[in-house]
C-alpha cells in the first residue's frame, strides 16, 4: 500500500467491529500500541511483567504488567520482512537494509564504519541465472518473438514461449542451488583476486579483505538473481585502506573469472531417471563501479542502497506465487497462480522424491529457492541487530517512565508469555489506517527534506 492510497470501505461486519474497538475504554492505549508498531498487520501478543530492582537494596524501582493493557496484552511488531504479509514491518526492514548498505558505501561513524570507506574500490554487480528456454520479453521495446509489443505490466512477460520445451526442472534446480553457488562464487573470488594480484592467498589475507552485501531478486521468469556490493578493504576491514594495487579493474576482473569458474554439480538421480546437471551462472554479468557523486549517469551510493533495499522485502510472490508454503492437499490454492508459476511449483513437488535432501516440497512456494534473501560479510558494515537495538534505545528514551536497562546499579527481571497474534477484522482495518497515516506523514517529511544523503526518506533508524 502506498502512503497516499485510500483504504477500501470496510464491510458492514468489519465496520461494526471497528466501532466496537474505537468505543472500548482502552482504545487510546490500543491505538498507541499499534502506532508504536508502525501499524503492524499481524502483531504478536504477549502477557507478562517486568520488575526493575536496585541491586544493592533489592527495592522495586519500576514494575510493569500487561494486566492494565487493552485485553491484558502487549502488542509488538511481527517483524515480517515480506511486504505481502505486513507492509509496516517490511517498510522498517527495507529502511534498515538501506542504512546497512549505505553505511558500507559512505561510512557512518555512529554505526561503526569510518567515512574513509568511501575511498575503497567498490562495485555493484548482478549475477544472473542461465537460460532455460525462450520467454516473452521486451527486447529494447521491440516486438517479442511472439510478434507482440508487450506492455510493461503484461502478465505474459517472463512466461515460456513454448512451455512444452521449457526446462522447468533446470529452473527449479537452479533456484534450489543458487545460495550454494553464491558461496562457491565468494570462495573463487578470493582465489581469483590473489591470482590476478600475483600473490599467494596467504599474502592476500594479510593485505586485503573482500567485503560484500547482497540481495536476491526474482526475475519475471521465476529465476533468482543476485545484486551485490563488493568492496576491497585493508586487512582490518573498513578501518584500513587496501593497498594501491587493489583497484576497481582488479576487482572487476576477479569477479568475472570467479563467476565463470563457480559451478555446482547436481548428481544424477538414476532411480528417478534424472540426469546429472551442472549449475552455473548465466552469461549476463553486470559489474559497475560505484561513485560517491553522480553526474546523472554514474551509479551513486544512494542509488545502490535504495535499489538493494527495494528488493529486500520482496520474495517469490512477485511472480504470482503464494507467500506461504504449499500444503500437501492445497491444489485448490494454486488455481489463481499463473500457469508458468504453477508449473514451477509442480516441478518442485515432482522433483522432491528424486532429491529429498534438497527439501523441494517445503520450498515449492519459493520456486525452489532456499537461501537467505539478504546477506553480508561480517565486516561489511553494521548489522540489522544493531540497527534494531538503536531503534529500541531511541524509543526507550522517549518514555520517561521506562527504566534504564543499561544502568549497572539496577536489575531487571522479565517474564513474558506468548498469547497469540493478529487482529480482529475491525482492528485490522484500524491498523491499516494507522499505517497509511504514518506513511503519509513520512512521505510529507521526505518531500520536505532537502538533504541528498537520504533520498528515500528512511531517516535515522530510530
UniProtKB/TrEMBL annotation:
Which InterPro entries does this UniProt record tie to the protein?
RepSA, RepSA_streptomyces
Entries under Pfam families matching the protein: RepSA
Its domain of life reads Bacteria
Q: Where is the composition biased (Basic and acidic residues)?
A: 441-452
According to the record, the residues making up region (Disordered) are 441-462
Protein name according to UniProt: Replication initiation protein
